[in-house]
Amino acid sequence: MSHITPALLGSLLSAHGAALRLYARQFLSGAESDAAADDVVQEALLQLAKQATMPDDPPAWLFRTVRNGALTARRRAERRRRHETSAGSARSGWFESRPEAQLDAAAAAAALAALPDEVREVVVAHLWGGLTFEQIATVVGTSSSTAHRRYEQGLQTLRLRWDTKHAGT
Amino acid sequence: MPELNSSPSPDWGGLEAALGSLTPTAPMIDRDQLMFEAGRAARPQQRGVTSLALVACAAIALGIGRWTAPTTVSLEPTQLAENVGPQAQEPADSSLTDPASYYQLRRRLNDADLAAIGSSPALPTQTQAADRAALLHELLN
Fold it and tell me: With an 8 Å Cβ cutoff, is A90 touching chain B?
């Protein structure tokens, strides 16, 4: 068992920071969700630094910790402001707007946001987090076949949404 | 059964590629601050270990100190006089049994002191003082 070094922590932040933040954003809403997501990711990295030994699967461990932290933050935020819900602000800042992207960042975020929570988190964890379905199963607390089924369901919903949109325009 | 770790179906390839072309926004985390906080978060464990080591060292030092310390027995002056007097054995060497020898004179002087301590806290009488002076004079000459 190895210890968590600052260099390793930095490399984990570089490799998974953006995906972890996006994953955290799936559970958070409201104007302060960007900052809340950053806090959750930072707290997860700090918790990793506190571990006496390295977890068996650091990325999966981080995603699970971020998930727990984001759910806690969401419950706290919901208690604080039950009436403040803005779908537009909730999706802002999910993706960077880049010309080489094949999809419009805002439209993709809106389509993703329309997915059920349990489906969306699997899509995000696999597509942008790079986790396998076995890893997702441990993070979410389900079987890998269920995670796989949710992923397919998510992609199917997204494609239907895009097809409908393009057919309409 | 489909391969779980790859794309579920070739049909999804285009959609996955399109979605994958989107880059998630990087977290606004100050890397230096994170490293500082991580170091601070890890410190209590080290402090705990250090404290434990200090306590263990102190306990060992105390144990060794008590183990190696000389044992002292406190005796009352009267007990001292009783213990010293009768238990003092005459030396086998005949030169030491001579009443004028240093050993015998010194012994008599000690006996006189112990007797003075054990008998009374008051000042010694003039005769005792004279005896002691005579003994000292004899001892020194």
Answer: no
Q: Is residue A1 part of a domain?
A: no
Task: From chain A, pick out residues whose CB is under 8 angstroms from the CB of B21.
Answer: 100-103
* Tens-place pLDDT, residues A66-111: 999 999 998 888 777 665 544 444 566 788 877 777 888 888 898 9
Q: Cβ separation of A127 and B19 shorter than 8 Å?
A: yes
H-type helices in chain B, by residue range? 13-20, 31-68, 77-87, 94-97, 102-119, 126-140
Of the ranges A140-144, A161-165, B42-46, which one carries the lowest mean pLDDT score? B42-46
Residue type, B8: P
Give the nearest chain B residue to A148 (CA atoms).
B4
Q: Which amino acid is at A110?
A: A
- Quick check: A160 contacting B, CB < 8 Å? no
Judge residue B76's burial from the number of C-beta atoms within 10 Å of its C-beta, 0-12 exposed, 13-18 middle, 19 or more buried.
exposed
- Number of domains chain A is built from: 1
Domain membership flag for residue A81 = yes
Of A17, A41, A95, the CB nearest to B22: A95
The C-alpha of A117 sits at a distance from chain B's nearest C-alpha, in angstroms, of 18
Q: Which residue has the tokens 């399109």?
A: B18
Give the model confidence (pLDDT) of B38-97 as tens digits: 887 776 666 677 788 889 889 989 888 888 887 776 666 666 666 655 555 555 677 777
- Evaluate whether residue A147 is within a structural domain: yes
Q: Does A110 touch chain B (CB under 8 A)?
A: no
The domain containing residue A49 runs over which residues? 6-168
